[in-house]
Amino acid sequence: MLAFLEQQLIPFLEQLYITFGYFGVGLAMAIESACIPLPSEIILPMAGWMVSRGLFDFWWAVIAGTIGCTVGSTVAYYVGAIGGRPALLRYGRYVFISPHDLDTADNWFAKYGDWAIFFSRLLPVVRTFISFPAGVSKMSLPRFLIYTTIGSFPWSLGLVYAGKVFGDNWVEIRGFLAKFDYVIVAVILVLVALYIYRHLKRSSVTAE
Which of 41, 102, 156, 195 has minimal CB crowding within 10 Å? Predict the structure, then answer.
């Protein structure tokens, strides 16, 4: 099903790029970075393919991807900062998130947020969703923007370049990187399971 949806995405992106040029690349990346799983592993290699056809300039495509990522990430950050934290404080107990957990996340982002944001931009799946918790934890916005931009640049550079090199075979890039998606999702699921287990165990001890 997912592969079918991605196949439907390809002609849409091609038309978007032909119609709006670099703005289309930036728009697609902004959507991807606003916690909407539109895979940049398709968006950026396809822009690289357009470079190989002489329709895009390489560096402008990279810059458009980087700017789009920063813009979309900022939207997700503000959603987390404005609406996410109040919602979690009110309803978080239903998903095993307590005020103490939020305080812990605040301290973690204050200490490690810069590097977390930077390295998250280089990881499939994680890069799409990291901005929301950064907003919830009220990470410094200037630092968030700086490290988001710095981290997004090599991701955009690498995927646009790969699309340029692969040319008409650029779709193979998504197939290769999809393997890492499964690994990262599996790791996330294990971490979530451990978090729920520890939360339930702590709750049972408190009840005793």
Answer: 195
CA atoms of 4 and 155, how far apart (whole Å):
25
What is the residue type of 140? S
HSE (side-chain half, CA atoms, 13 Å) at 125: 13
**Tally: H helices and E strands in the chain:** 10, 0
Rg (CA), the chain: 19
**Average of pLDDT values for 13-31?**
94
d(CA 134, CA 76) in angstroms, rounded, equals 9
Burial of 139 per CB tally in 10 Å (0-12, 13-18, 19+)? buried
Q: Which two tokens stand for residue 70?
A: 């920063």
Report whether 74 contacts 61 (CB < 8 A). Answer: no
Inform me whether the pLDDT recorded for 197 exceeds 60.
no
pLDDT in tens, 109-153: 777 778 888 888 887 777 788 888 888 888 889 999 999 999 999
